[in-house]
Amino acid sequence: MQMTDFCDHLYNESTDGYIQILKLDDENNSGERTIKIYNTKNDGLRDIVEELHKKEDVFLAPNTMYIPKRRVENIRQFRALFQDIDCESMGLEKAETVYMIWIMHYEGKIPKPTMVTDSGRGVHLYWRIQNAPFGALNTWQELQDYIYYNLKHLGADKKATDGARVLRLPGTINSKCDANCEVLYIDNDVEYSMYELREEYLNYKPKTHQLKMQQTKKIDNKVISNRFFNSYSLHMERANDLETLCRLRKYEMTGYRNMAVHCFAYWKGIYVRDNYELENIVIEFNNAFTEPLKETEVQAVLRCIPKAIDKFIAYEQGLRSGERKRVSKGMRDKEGYWYKNETLIDKLGITSKEQKYMKTIIGLDEKYDRKNEKRRADRRNENGLTNKQQELQDLKNKVESMKDQGYSLRSIAKDLNISLGKVQRVLKK
Question: Please, which residues have CB within 8 angstroms of residue 215's CB and are 6 or more apart in sequence?
Answer without folding.
Answer: none
